[in-house]
Every structure is written in C-alpha cells, then in structure tokens.
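User: Assemble these into one structure.

Assistant: Restating your components, then the assembled model:
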Amino acid sequence: MKKHNFSAGPSILNHNVIKAAAESVIDINNLGLSLLEISHRSNDFIKIIEEAKSLIKDLLNINEQYEVLFLQGGASLQFYMSALNFAKRNGKAGYIDTGTWSSKAIDESKKVGETLILASSKDQNYTYIPEINEKIDNIDYLHFTSNNTIYGTQFHSFENISKIALANNTKLICDMSSDILSKEFDVNKFDLIYAGAQKNIGPAGTTLVIIRKDGFEKNNKLPTYLNYQTHIEKQSMFNTPPVFPIYVCLLTLRWIKKLGGIKSIEKNNIKKANLIYDEIDRNSLFYGIVKQKDRSNMNVTFQLKNKKHEDTFNKMCHAVGISGIYGHRSIGGYRASIYNALKTESIYVLIDVMQKLEQK
Amino acid sequence: MKKHNFSAGPSILNHNVIKAAAESVIDINNLGLSLLEISHRSNDFIKIIEEAKSLIKDLLNINEQYEVLFLQGGASLQFYMSALNFAKRNGKAGYIDTGTWSSKAIDESKKVGETLILASSKDQNYTYIPEINEKIDNIDYLHFTSNNTIYGTQFHSFENISKIALANNTKLICDMSSDILSKEFDVNKFDLIYAGAQKNIGPAGTTLVIIRKDGFEKNNKLPTYLNYQTHIEKQSMFNTPPVFPIYVCLLTLRWIKKLGGIKSIEKNNIKKANLIYDEIDRNSLFYGIVKQKDRSNMNVTFQLKNKKHEDTFNKMCHAVGISGIYGHRSIGGYRASIYNALKTESIYVLIDVMQKLEQK
C-alpha cells in the first residue's frame, strides 16, 4: 500500500531521490564500486560535495561572502558551536525562546557566557511567536529558531528581527533545521544559519551550515572540529565527511532545482498548508493549537475536541496508509509534517479522513 | 570489470552488505517506506540500533560495565571529546605519538590541559611503534592509536601498554579507527575506545564509542553533545543519530557474526597480510617501509626501489581493476589497505601484478 508519510523528521524524500540514492549504494558513476566504499578524496566524491554546495548557493541566492558547509553532529552540536564561535570574550548573547530547540540552544549558550532571553512565548506554552523589543542590550549575537517542529510555530517573516539586529549592530544567527529550502528569504541578513538535514534537505547524518566568512571572531585556541574556521579553510573536508547523506542532499537539491527552485516549492507549500488548516478550522471535531498568524507551514499541529474519537481516527488514518501523524510526546494530539517532498495528494487523503470522521 | 578495492577509507564493504543496504533505501521491513524517511524514534530504527550495539558487545565480548555508542563527528571530534571528559582539573595526559592521527589527538589534548609525549617514533618518520617507559608521570590517562593508516604501523599486542597503565593507575584510551573488529583483544583493559566507522565497521558518518561507565569524571558543565554522560543516559539517542550509516554497520556486524566472529576474521586477516608482505620481501623491485615486527595487518605500505617502474606498475594495476592502491600524499609510494571485507582473491591479483612486473 502507498504510504502518506507525515513524519516530523527524519522525513519524506522524493521517490526519485530515493531511487537514485539506492542505485548509488550499488554503483556510483559506473565505477564498479558502491558510493559507500570510495575515498572521500576521490574526484567522484569531490564533484558530489562541490555540486551540493553550489546548488545551495544557487537555490538560496548566496553570494561569495558566505561559505556553505556540510558538518556532523546535528543542530544539537551547532547550539554549542555557534555560541563558542560567536560569543566574544566577556560578551552577552540574546535568544528568542520559542520552546524546546531554542531552549536547548539557550542551555548551551549559558555554558559559554551570559545569555539573555529577549522574548519568550513560554507563558502560553509556546503556541505563538513572541514580539521582540526594538531596543536590546549590547549583545554579541541574536539567536532564534525559525520554525518549531514540536509546537508548530513559524516566523513567517524575518524582516522585523533582521531590522532589530541591524539597528543594534549585532550578529544574527538562525536555526533553520525545519524550514530551510521551504521558502524564499534573504541570506544576506544572517551571519550564521544552520540546519540538520533530516527535514527538507536529506536524510539524517549531516548538518548544513551557511556562514558569513567575516562574521565571527577567528580563534585558533578553539577545539579544531568546533572551529568554523577549520571547516571553511578545509572546505568541509577537514575530516571524513558523511559521504552518503551528502549525496542524498545533492539528489534532493537537484530535484528542487528541476521543480523550478524555492519560489515554486514555496507556492506549493503554502497551498498545502492552507488546505489542511482550512479543514482544521472548518471541521467541527478538530482545532488548531497555534495562534493563526504564527501557524507553521511545515508542521501542522491539531487536536481532537473530544478524545473519544481518537481510536477511530487513528485506525482510519492507518487504514489509508497515513504514517507519522502523532504529535510529539510532550504535547500529544496530532502533527502533520508537510515538508517539501510531501505531495498535495497526501494532504487530500488526510482531509478526506477528517471529513469522513465528522460524517460518522 | 570486477574491482579490487584497496582504499584506505571509506573502504571496501562486503557485497551482500552493500546489496542489503541498497534494498533498505527502497524499503525497510516492508513498511512501504525508505529507511531514510522513517523516524529515529520508530520501533523499526530502535531495533536496528539496539541490535547493532548488542552485536558489538557480543563480538568483542564486552560486559555490562561498558556502554556502546554510535556518535557523529569522527575520530577528529573524539580527539577533543576524550580529552575534555577524561582530563581531571589541573591534571596531565600522556600520549604515544605514532604520527598524524595521534599528533592530531595530542593537539586537541593541549587545548584541554598539560600533555606529555610518553614515546614517539618521529625520529624515524613513524616507521615503527615506539617503546614506552614502565614508570610514567602521574597522568589522568594514557592515549594511543592502535593502527596508523598512513605509515602502516600497528600495535600487535596491547599487553605491555595496558600493564603500564594498570601499574601507574591511569586510564587507558585508544583510537582504534582502523583496526577494531579485525582482531581479538581484551576490552576490559580500556576505559575508552573510539573508532570512525569507515574502515571495518561501515560507511562514513558514524563513530563507534565503547566506554567504561565508571571510568570518567561526570561533569554537567560540559557542552551537552560533548559529554559522554549525555549519550550514555540517552542510549545514543540524545539527538537524531545517523540512521543509514548505523544500519550499514549493523549489516556488517551480522556478516562478521555469520563468518564465525572476530577469531575467524583475524585468522583470515593474518593470512592476507602474510601473503602480501612475503611478496614485498621476496620481490626484487619492492621494499616495505615499516620495521617488520610493527607492520600493520590493515594498511600495507610499500615502495618501488626504482621509481622508473612506477608508470608501468600503475597501469598494470589499473588494467586488472585494482583501485585505491596509492600511498597517502604525505609519504607517496603504495598502500594496500586490506580490511576485513577485502577477499584473499584481491591479494592474489595484486601479487600477480607485482610478479609480472618483476618478470618484465
């Protein structure tokens, strides 16, 4: 049976990407060797990583002031690494707290230096994106999470936050793990962007980093792997990179390019999100938990008004091949993650189940 | 044409492992989903990582005092992480310098605290394994690299070094990236063992860590990702693990188990190494660069006595499908990496080319 994969991550990949990825495991470039067993210093792999970086630059319209890196350790390692590289001695850092991921980033920053919470939506269990005061303390950098996968909130514009960073002469850092490549935005407003690959970029095992080369304090005393300068100088080849995950990222990037780039992806993502949110608002059995204007176009969180329908709804979802629809264990309910590769067809299948439940 | 893959890493994997890995990219457990697009919290993946850990414990005869982890960042991140976790405040660490990898580990240790070089083979360009004095300074831990992939040296016994660590009441740490799972040894002598997967364990993208749970100072102030305690408590699931690389490790571990375990693998590795070293010593055109008793059973380094034969030898190798045979750029010459998955047949093909070159 065909599956409709709403998993929050690792998440759905385009089926042609999956097919080509499987082929590469058997043989890459007709070498008579698997991609898994060739040297990362071989021309075959150098071409792969260079094309992947170049496509990131192309799709996101990134200029020569930035370096694109493929690292390891996920956003979780970036929480610490970003603070370590961007916090000046005796400096302060400012964070926007939108729950879980930003809270974890805040914890790591506290291990490096003074850490201010500039805004938080904790008062309403992170169901909205908080406003930031225009005048902020003298901080080294401002950090925020563009999309929260657990609560289903999203910054729909970076205009205000980047204006505040600029006015206060502070660096801007963003964890875009769950919405990069899903919509157009201006990379030039940022000094550092990082994203675990396992949502819109590829499979688990690599982390995309986009860094403004003159945007941070170089410091040779930092641990070598944790120093962005190391990876900039070595072009992501300081040590053996995660070869296969990077290749699957390349396949996904080629697919996005072929589809017409981010503009076209974004149009489709908005359409998909509107379809499902409209049904949540219309359907008498469900409600959304996030403030309307801050609803995520990637992770759609919703609940049943009456828990007694839960079993029936779960069974109906299962019967039509819907998978990965349950909410994060910390908030329960449902979460439909509708990343780039999820087809509109899968949205219609979910809506149909919701409507049939209501009709029952 | 069938390839004979002597690559130093990422390196050869068994062909049935490759086949099963490719199948998992299309579909895992008949779910109708690729392994790349399922949640790392799903039962399907939990079973994979648990079986992989359990097979490591089984194959290496590891008891309950140890935890097996699959992390990211390679040995390069472990260089720093091991020092950070094992160096007590104001303590000293002792290192055996056998070139490149241990030199890099030493550099990271210096960023953490005082670092002593207890022995080094630098005086003869790292072509032998140095002796260590029985009486050493009061150090927190003793670190060594069991096999050097670049020079082709290997500790053939851990008896002496573990006896010295015990007599001096110091922890013992080993980077076994290039020879773990290739021979039997007693894990109980060690407090920490780490190994990048991309030699004998699996593809690039994950790092095996075997850690004695009571062997290090717990410290909640450490960066969360860099704290072994984090990964021990979260059972390698603190953040999204590299799902596919771990699955390929599992496939390799199953293959080793089926072959009869490490004892059987070791017997075959010794046979392969003897065949090729015997030919190097017999053949009038070649010589080995490493002191005989310290020659690696994993990375066989050798040179042509007369460089004028280089072109012919390279062409002859290429013609029969030999790949990855060139020495590391820092020392040149040749390096035949003969990891677990390389068949004896490939050794015979290489020997045949060496003999034909001599006959010419």
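Chain B has ten helices and 14 strands.
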